[in-house]
């Protein structure tokens, strides 16, 4: 997970978040995972209280005094008594049956921000080196099919998050799209570095195992064999493939019911 955090850090132009810098007081990190983002944000913003929430507890016990972790099911009614001025989410595609409910449940103070970062598992290539029936494209199609089968569809386009935030009443919504090369094939220095990290951070077996076994009924051995085959193309410098990484953030209106520019 720390490798994934490094990947997002580079893709965010060496920033912890893209929404405007504020003196945040109450921050919530949805699906915090190992808590790396929450811990780093707490270290950088000593004035803030940071809560990382996940369904599983595998975060470290030694954390900054202004950071804590909680176990909760975000698909149930939120139980926090107060509001947050910044809610952060990362890599939640396929985690929820009703992602719109997650966005609409965001308990933000007026003027607070919601920011989500996600990888779109729709591999692309601009020069034709990733053919339509390639192992990587086939894997991506199977992944999307498996997610639909278990009722937790993957986010397919940045416009989905844009619509979710807009429907939930957010304003000043921004969409940023970055490219995550599958390996170090780009000539650009920064993209080459991102590609090196992508080849480590995007663990195909970890991404695929639960979805393929539960959604498609595959044996674990079949998943491992398929991922090994896909990885050959994933790491081939002759295949100039990349995944879009999207960052979408928006602001809760300062005055309830007011009309603000979207």
Record keyword descriptors for this entry:
262 residues, alpha/beta, Rossmann fold, 7-stranded mixed sheet, 34% helix
Which whole number gives the mean pLDDT? 89
Tally of helical segments:
8
Mass-distribution shape:
globular
End-to-end separation in angstroms reads 34 Å
**Domains counted in the coordinates: how many?**
1
Proper CATH architecture: 3-Layer(aba) Sandwich
What's the helical proportion of residues?
A: 25-40%
Please write the string of helix (H) and strand (E) elements. Answer: HEHEEEHEHHEHHHE
CATH class: Alpha Beta
Look at the structure and name the CATH superfamily.
Vaccinia Virus protein VP39
How is the biggest beta sheet arranged? 7 strands, mixed
Report the structural category. alpha/beta
> What fold name goes in the CATH topology slot?
Rossmann fold
- Radius of gyration (CA) equals 19 Å
Short description:
By secondary structure, the protein is α/β, with parallel strands linked by helices.
Can you put this structure into words, describing what you see?
With 262 residues, the protein is α/β, with parallel strands linked by helices. It has helices at residues 2-11, 36-44, 99-104, 135-149, 158-167, 189-201, 204-215, 220-234, and strands at residues 26-30, 49-54, 67-71, 84-90, 108-119, 171-181, 242-251. The chain has one domain: Vaccinia Virus protein VP39 (Rossmann fold, 3-Layer(aba) Sandwich), CATH 3.40.50.150. 34% of the residues lie in helices and 21% in strands. The relative contact order is 0.16. Belongs to the methyltransferase superfamily. LaeA methyltransferase family.
């Amino acid at each position: 997970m720390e490798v994934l955090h490094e990947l997002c850090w580079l893709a965010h132009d060496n920033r912890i978040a893209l929404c405007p810098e504020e003196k945040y007081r109450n921050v919530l990190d949805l699906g915090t995972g190992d808590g790396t983002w929450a811990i780093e944000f707490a270290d950088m913003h000593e004035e803030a209280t940071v809560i990382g929430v996940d369904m599983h507890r595998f975060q470290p016990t030694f954390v900054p005094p202004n950071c804590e972790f909680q176990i909760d099911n975000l698909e149930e009614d939120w139980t926090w008594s107060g509001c947050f001025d910044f809610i952060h989410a990362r890599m939640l595609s396929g985690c929820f049956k009703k992602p719109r409910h997650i966005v609409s449940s965001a308990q933000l103070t007026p003027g607070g921000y919601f920011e989500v970062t996600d990888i779109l598992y729709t591999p692309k290539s601009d020069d034709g080196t990733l053919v339509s029936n390639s192992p990587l494209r086939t894997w991506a199609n199977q992944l999307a099919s498996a997610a639909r089968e278990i009722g937790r569809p993957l986010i397919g386009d940045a416009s989905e998050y844009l619509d979710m935030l807009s429907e939930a009443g957010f304003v000043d919504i921004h969409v940023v799209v970055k490219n995550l090369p599958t390996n170090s094939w780009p000539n650009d220095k920064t993209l080459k570095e991102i590609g090196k990290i992508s080849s480590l951070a995007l663990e195909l077996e970890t991404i695929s195992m639960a979805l393929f076994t539960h959604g498609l009924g595959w044996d674990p051995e079949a998943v491992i064999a398929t991922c090994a085959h896909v990885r050959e193309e994933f790491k081939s410098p002759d295949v100039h493939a990349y995944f879009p990484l999207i960052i979408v953030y928006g602001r809760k209106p300062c005055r309830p019911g007011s009309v603000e520019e979207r």
